[in-house]
Specification:
single chain; two-stranded parallel sheet; 4-stranded antiparallel beta sheet; alpha+beta; about 55% helix; 5 helices
């Protein structure tokens, strides 16, 4: 006598999480924490590859949500990078950084000629025009404080730049140090320096 055995259906195999989707999400998170393009582009690439493979797998691979999140974060970091790249030159120009850097170099080229003049004549020149072969000294924008020598107060200002838009002024002190200082501090220092001695 034959017995019929009813065989139960095999349990469905759970879908496997997509490694690419996980990578996309991780890279997307990292890109938003400051790495921008460095992690944003891999997040986008992994996200698209993961979504394509998940679709082709017919349910055997999961992780569509993670891939989508990775893509969103990756594209967000890409847009943010473009915005930063477009705004950076404007912000740098507005901060006066480039102009200040050039002026620091110009002021530093004046220090040695000023000291040489003082060593020869016992005082600093009455005008920056007296510094021979020093092209940077010929610029009319410098504010010069004549009538000083190395015996003057070392913190006295000898040469200064015009104030920059970021609220800083560059100075050469009598001791030969080029220093950026807040414009308010520069104004109070020069007022004290030029005040009649009692």
């Amino acid at each position: 006598m034959h017995t019929n055995t009813v065989l139960g259906e095999a349990p469905a195999t759970p879908a496997k999480s997509s490694g690419l989707a996980i990578s996309s999400l991780i890279c997307g998170i990292i890109s938003c924490l400051g790495c921008l393009l460095l992690a944003g582009i891999p997040a986008i690439i992994c996200g698209h590859m993961a979504k394509s493979r998940i679709k082709q797998s017919e349910g055997t691979i999961s992780g569509n949500g993670m891939a989508t999140a990775g893509l969103v974060l990756g594209y967000f970091s890409l847009v943010l990078t473009l915005v930063v790249a477009l705004l950076a030159p404007v912000m740098i120009k507005k901060s006066g950084f480039i102009e200040m850097t050039k002026d620091i170099i110009s002021l530093q080229t004046m220090v040695e000629p000023l000291n040489s003049y003082e060593a020869e004549f016992g005082k600093f020149p009455d005008s920056l025009d007296e510094l021979q072969d020093t092209p940077s000294a010929k610029d009319d924008k410098w504010i010069y404080f004549p009538g000083q020598s190395s015996k003057s107060n070392g913190s006295n200002i000898l040469v200064a730049s015009p104030p920059y838009s970021n609220g800083v002024t560059l100075t050469i002190n009598v001791d030969g140090i080029v220093t950026p200082i807040p414009t308010e501090q520069y104004e109070s220092a020069t007022a004290e320096q030029l005040a009649p001695q009692q």
